[in-house]
Design a protein that fits this description.
heterodimer, A: 330 residues, Farnesyl Diphosphate Synthase, 14 helices, B: 57 residues, mainly alpha, 39% helix
Chain lengths: 330, 57
């Protein structure tokens, strides 16, 4: 079964939206890109001992939520790739509202216990309540310190991913306690994705809007706040990074040299270590899987996927480090 | 977990023994932008897919 084709089919049956051609087209086009994050509820459901079929309502709810959140985020960021530039901001806002409700509708019609359904609907609602305030803070706050950065990062990304894992677990029949642990794991997953976003947004060419002085992704905050030799030069370059490729290149190289990118990788690695410890504890819980599912392996693979690009770079670096050790270079 | 100021001090050259992770993170600071640019391109979530995003006809 192709999950994405199945989701398009399920989406086309949602009351009211089935008559809305533009939203159906949008959903189909995004599904064509096969967003990997849509499959998180499936992995969680499997890890809780459930099946693909059981996971479908959660995946659909997460897909609707994702599209709705990005529609709004693109408008907030004035992103040049946003759908609002094609359909207009009023229509994009209208579609985003519909997609929020569609996420809840996907859960409301599914065949699970009333208790699990209520918890799942609360879970979906939490995605929007928490993410919207995170987005609001992100756009309307000037981040001046690390505490503020983490507060916004957690609010903006953790709820979506926490709910993605929790929903999947609930669909798979997990207990409330187990589903809460999945939510916690998903929260960490969200922070890791936010770290990737920040690295990508600051190292991409041409410069992304994150280089504007009212935005502060973690690498830029590090280069601005930490007392390193190139700090003054970075502060001088930053306001012009978007207007000159040469300045952008120099500013991006400072991000690498001063340790700002290394710091993001360090934060990724630490979260992965925390996750691995949590997964070991999950193994010791009374399991719903009756020994038939491989919970640790399924969830560990989900997180390994996030770290894989870092591991690949480390593999290359290890060869250099190894030769330095052999030749006595420190 | 270290915060950014402590991390910078920890990463900087010193006489204390270096762990493998610390050596790796230090080695990262010597890489070129092009070597790091693709590291995080697949993990983003506030885009669907650059080619698909906003492609409503």
């Amino acid at each position: 079964m192709d999950i994405y084709a199945r989701l398009v089919d399920e989406f086309s049956k949602i009351t009211h939206l089935k008559e809305w051609n533009e939203v159906q087209t949008l959903f189909r086009q995004v599904a064509l890109g096969r967003p990997a994050h849509w499959l998180l509820p499936l992995r969680a459901c499997e890890a809780a001992g459930g099946t693909v079929e059981q996971a479908i309502p959660a995946i659909l709810a997460v897909a609707c939520s994702h599209i709705g959140i990005v529609l709004v985020d693109d408008m907030l960021d004035a992103d040049s790739r946003g759908a609002h530039l094609k359909v207009g901001e009023p229509a994009a806002a209208n579609m985003a509202s519909a997609l929020q409700s569609a996420a809840l509708a996907a859960i409301s019609v599914c065949n699970i216990s009333l208790d699990a359904k209520l918890r799942s609907m609360e879970c979906v609602n939490e995605i929007f309540l928490a993410t919207t305030i995170g987005q609001y803070w992100d756009v309307n706050s000037i981040v001046e310190d690390e505490d503020s950065y983490w507060k916004i990062a957690k609010a903006k990304s953790s709820p979506f991913f926490g709910a993605s894992l929790q929903l999947g677990a609930l669909m798979g029949g997990a207990s409330v306690k187990l589903s809460e642990q999945f939510k916690e794991l998903g929260g960490l997953y969200g922070e890791m994705i936010q770290l990737h976003d920040d690295i990508n947004d600051t190292l991409t060419v041409p410069a992304k809007p994150d280089w504007e002085t009212d935005r502060t992704p973690l690498p830029i905050l590090f280069a601005k706040l930490v007392d390193h030799p190139l700090r003054a030069r970075f502060v001088e370059l930053r306001p012009n990074a978007r207007s000159s490729p040469k300045i952008l290149k120099e500013a991006q190289e400072i991000l690498i040299r001063c340790g700002a990118i290394s710091y993001c990788v360090y934060q990724l690695m630490n979260r992965y270590e925390t996750v691995k410890n949590m997964l070991v504890e999950l193994e010791h819980l009374d399991t719903l899987c009756k020994g038939e599912c491989k919970r640790y392996e399924i969830l560990n693979e989900v997180f390994e996927d996030v770290l894989r690009p870092v591991f690949l770079i480390f593999e290359k670096l290890d060869k250099v480090i190894g030769s330095e050790v052999q030749t006595g270079v420190a | 977990m270290k915060r950014m100021h402590d991390f910078y001090k920890w990463l900087s050259p010193s006489d204390t023994p270096r762990t493998l992770d610390r050596r790796r993170l230090m080695a990262l600071t010597h890489l070129e932008r092009s070597q790091l640019a693709n590291m995080s391109s697949e993990g983003t979530w506030f885009v669907w897919n650059a080619e698909q995003s906003g492609a409503i006809e």
